[in-house]
Amino acid sequence: MKVLIVGGGGREHALAWKLRQSPRLTKLICAPGNAGIAKIADCVPIGTEDISGLVDFAKTQAVDFVVVGPEAPLTLGLADRLSEAGIKVFGPSAAAARLEGSKAFMKDLAARTGIPTAWYATFTDIEKAKAFAREKGAPIVVKASGLAAGKGVILCQSLDEALAAIDLMMSKREFGSAGDEVVIEEFLTGEEASFFALCDGKTAISFNAAQDHKAVGDGDTGPNTGGMGAYSPAPVVTEALEADIMARIVMPAVKGMAEAGTPFAGVLFAGLMIAKEGPKLIEFNVRFGDPECQVLMSRLDGDLLDILLAAAEGRIDQARISWKRETALVVVMAAQGYPGTYKKGTVIEGLKEAGTVDGVTVFHAGTKAQEGQILANGGRVLGITAIGSSVREAQSRAYQAVGHIRWPEGFCRRDIGWRAIAREDCP
Question: In terms of CATH architecture, what is 327-425?
Answer without folding.
Answer: Alpha-Beta Complex (3.90)
